[in-house]
Amino acid sequence: MKGFERLSKASRPSVGKATLFSLVDLQKGERSLCRAKETFATRQLSFVHTQETRPGLCCAPRPAGRAAPIENPLVPMPNQQRPVLKARLEQLIALVGGLMARYPRTIALFGFCSGVFSFIMVDRQKGFAQVLAIIMLVSWVWLILENLLRETFARRFGWEIPAPLLRYATQLIHQESLFFVLPFFLITTTWNSGQALFTGTLAAAALISITDPLYYRWLSRRRWVFLAYHTLTLFAVLLTSLPILLHLTTPESYRLSLGIAVVLSFPSLLVTFPLQHWWRGFLLLGLTLAVGLAGWFGRTWVPPATLWLTEVAVSSQFDDQSRTPGDSLEQVGAAQLRSQGLFAYTAINAPRGLDERIYHVWMFNGKEFDRIALDIHGGRKEGYRAWTHKQNFPGDPVGHWQVKVLTEAGQMIGTLRFDVTQ
Q1: Phi/psi zone of residue 379: left (φ > 0), alpha (ψ -120 to 50 degrees), beta?
Q2: Does 416 or 124 have the greater pLDDT score?
Q3: What percent of the chain clears pLDDT 90, i.e. is strictly above it?
Q4: For site-directed labelling of 100, which of 147, 192, 313, 349 has its Cα 20 to 30 A away?
Q5: What is the b/e burial string over 367-391, where b = at least 16 CB atoms within 10 angstroms of the residue's CB?
Q6: What is the distance between the alpha carbons of residues 373 and 360, in angstroms, rounded to a whole number?
Q7: Of all helices (H) and strands (E), which one includes residue 368?
């Protein structure tokens, strides 16, 4: 046994100085690693990234006098503020969405009241008209770019705006827009003409916008009908806003509004006629051009939104000094007509800064007899006063006469009527 023990001790590895030195080296390595970590952390606080000035150098020491940023645990950093802001916005949106879902009629009432209030303010304070027109157009820019802005918002903040809130916002813009433009068209419409169809369509669209069952269950579920509805509303807003904001004439406003409406009608036609075959592309292009041509040739059925008659008269007398006509006549004798002639007097309300050419078109038994051009200037509350004095009549003037007041684009502002008797 003793021999075996001596043999075991001899063959057993030594736990002497070599093992002790290994443990010491290991402890030194650990301490060196800790010091390296501390040094790296210190350099992170005391160095800033700069442009590389020589190979191998990617950072430079912080300039003297500038203290290293110290993180305060009591002040939330930007990456900590974002979740807080996101949570608060989500709470606010949830609150607004809940109130809208609980009181849906309040939105309709607000849209109706704000639209009517906007019209009243535009009618009484001309300076307010430009501000309101800008707000309307900005809201429509947001509505057109809704998908792009929503995706950008989602990428920037990491969450999406709830779909119900977007639907309510779209409905509110439709309500405010329609109830803002509708009073303009109700005033300017000549109701015994094709203009009644256009204004009636706008009135029906306004009624749909405040009737949730029609708006959500019928209109919004038919994508192409909804896009057509959207385009019609934008067309009416542009017809009303462009003369007020940019002082464009009625023909210029109509051409620009129609061009934008035709461009926006393309998506609705694309939904209805998807491009599954090459020939459908030509069909889609033809339908888009047809929409534009229909809008142009049907312009006489569209009232000039910002031009309307405030006073009219057909009289045989006129005071040039006060620019006021005599008593308005509905019937006039042929002899009196030949001896004194006849005045057609119109006072036309137009936006401030607008210069427009209009026409007094004299019609005899449904046929154009004469056309006289007049230049008007906007801004007068009572309307710009313009008149024509006609003395050249046919040999037998007995019959039904009309004086149509038209824009250069052929849109009817109003009509004066009288009969000539023996």
Answers
A1: left
A2: 416
A3: 22
A4: 147
A5: eebeebebebebeeeebbbbbbebe
A6: 7
A7: strand 367-377
